[in-house]
Amino acid sequence: MSSLLQDLRYGLRMLVKNPAFTAVRVVALALGIGANAAIFSVVDAALLRPLPYQQPDWLVTIGESRGPIDDEMSDASYPDYLDWVRQAKSFQSLAAYSGDGFILTGNGSPEAVDSARVTASSVAMEEI
Predict the structure, then answer these.
(1) Is residue 89 within 8 Å of residue 83, measured between CB atoms?
(2) pLDDT tens string 91-115
């Protein structure tokens, strides 16, 4: 234990003796802690917390396949979405979305921004 105290005192003396070195260390430590906190906040919000819905495991995405060879899902048309809302018996509600993007301009340089257009939820089943 006495060895640890001697090491701490020596370290503090060296930090006081070299203020530029100390400032660089403090800034590097602050940037590291700040970056770690920012990354954890994003991971916590996006991956660790459950979605703000009563039953998030019931959420599904549906789409269309254009033919027997094309097995990739593609966006459905709005008239198809309206047909699905009228005819759906297996879903509590449906909503449509379309990924989009635009260029944001203003005082600074233009920036590309991702966005989505989303409809309001449409109740598919009668009086759930």
Answers:
(1) no
(2) 888 888 888 888 989 888 999 988 8
Helix (H, G, I), strand (E, B) or coil at 100: strand
Structure token digits, residue 98: 């379309």
What is the domain partition of the chain in residue ranges?
2-48, 56-123
Q: What angle do CA 68, 124, 78 make, to 5 degrees?
A: 50
Return mean pLDDT, the chain. Answer: 84
Other beta carbons within 10 angstroms of residue 35's beta carbon come to 10
As given in the structure block, the two tokens for residue 69 are 């060879």
CA–CA gap between residue 22 and residue 11 (Å, rounded): 11
Whether residue 47 has pLDDT greater than 70: yes
